[in-house]
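ok new one. same drill as before - structure tokens go in, u give me an amino acid for every spot. 399 of them this time. try not to just spam alanines like last time pls lmao
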């Protein structure tokens, strides 16, 4: 996470100077001051003496020394002491470090495959956490869930129980982390249309394109049932032994004006972010209630395009954010209404460029940086990790 020490504010006051007093006036002032001080001491001892004697009669010990204050021990999330060397340029708000490696959905098909995958974790990455994708963008689920909506929609692709996955990671010496995609879900809302975007005129399910062009529905953060569905998933995995739950895809679809004509202005209003922050807070509380913690993930290209509704530090209870820099998404550039951003360098160079572009949008959060994408090899990802550290971020996710 990147630590930002903004320093201590110093407020200066101007010293007042008084001039124009005569020598006689000065002498009178000095005499009056002496009299006042003497009077204060006389009254003080007159009152304090009886009070002290009374206190002693009650058996109390009167101490004339200042109270001692114990030095506070600053620890990290694991209860380990953080030394002065560790806290260079660190504020108490931002202490936890998150160094993770991500497995693929193919790595968690069964216990033996998972064990083999854990042995391939790069030894030089200083990895403490292993992250597994349990709910992917699009909606598919890669563990044996008991969730009614998931099983009814036919999206369960995994057979391992979440507790078995978490235990295998712990047995390998790492801390287990679950990755959950939230509102980028195109399957469950197809079967349970009350969770989808509905047209305001006739309540029909909205899809993001024509049927011929492969249009699909999306999970709607304004739907209470949709939010409850994702929260139940977070509940299920956070209670299965995962110490962190990374939740991504707190996003709205890219609406066109023709879509708004059917859906209404609510979905492009200035306060639509409240649906996302409210949902994120609900998931955060659920994870916390199970002894886990939630981390919010945002995509770097989304931020560059201005899609950063959920980044509301005054409203969010979660204060740790993973910035995902996906090299596959950068391969053809990032297009915004005003600019085309090209990323033609090495993964390390592209990491530095992206952090320069979007880093300020995350300055109110604890930040870890993810480097991902199939176009980059494992060594390139490790080199990009070194670039992340060089940019001042000491928390990262590889893969």
């Amino acid at each position: 996470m990147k630590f930002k020490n903004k320093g201590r504010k110093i407020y200066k006051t101007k010293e007042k100077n008084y001039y124009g007093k005569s020598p006689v006036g000065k002498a009178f002032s000095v005499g009056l001051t002496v009299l006042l001080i003497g009077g204060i001491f006389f009254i003080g001892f007159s009152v304090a003496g009886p009070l002290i004697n009374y206190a002693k009669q009650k058996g109390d010990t009167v101490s004339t020394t200042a109270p001692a204050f114990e030095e506070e021990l600053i620890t990290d999330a694991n209860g380990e002491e953080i030394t002065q060397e560790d806290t260079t340029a660190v504020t108490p708000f931002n202490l936890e470090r998150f160094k993770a490696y991500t497995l693929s959905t193919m790595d968690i098909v069964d216990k033996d495959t998972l064990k083999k995958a854990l042995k391939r974790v790069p030894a030089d990455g200083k990895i403490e956490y292993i992250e597994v994708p349990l709910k992917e963008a699009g909606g598919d689920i890669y563990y044996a869930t008991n969730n009614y909506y998931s099983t009814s929609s036919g999206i369960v692709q995994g057979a391992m129980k979440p507790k078995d996955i978490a235990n295998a990671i712990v047995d390998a010496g790492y801390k287990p982390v679950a990755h959950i995609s939230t509102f980028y879900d195109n399957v469950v809302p197809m079967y349970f249309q009350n969770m989808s975007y509905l047209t305001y005129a006739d309540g029909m399910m909205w899809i993001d394109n024509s049927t011929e062009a492969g249009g699909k529905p999306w999970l709607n953060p304004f739907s209470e049932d949709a939010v409850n569905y994702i929260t139940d998933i977070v509940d299920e995995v956070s209670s299965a032994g995962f110490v962190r739950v990374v939740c991504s895809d707190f996003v709205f679809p890219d609406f066109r004006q023709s879509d708004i004509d059917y859906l209404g202005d609510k979905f492009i209003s200035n306060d639509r972010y409240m649906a996302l922050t409210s949902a994120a807070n609900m998931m955060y509380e659920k994870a916390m209630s199970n002894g886990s913690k939630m981390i919010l993930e945002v995509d770097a290209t989304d931020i560059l395009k201005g899609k950063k509704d959920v980044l509301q530090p005054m409203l969010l209870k979660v204060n740790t954010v993973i910035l995902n820099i996906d090299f596959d998404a950068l391969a053809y550039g990032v297009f915004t209404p005003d600019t085309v951003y090209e990323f033609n360098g090495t993964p390390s160079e592209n990491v530095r460029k992206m952090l320069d572009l979007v880093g300020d949008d995350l300055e109110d959060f604890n930040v870890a940086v993810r480097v991902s994408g199939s176009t980059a090899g494992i060594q390139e990802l490790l080199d990009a990790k070194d670039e992340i550290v060089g940019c001042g971020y000491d928390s990262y996710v590889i893969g």
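Confidence is low (pLDDT under 50) at residues 3-94. and btw The chain is about 35% helix and 15% strand.
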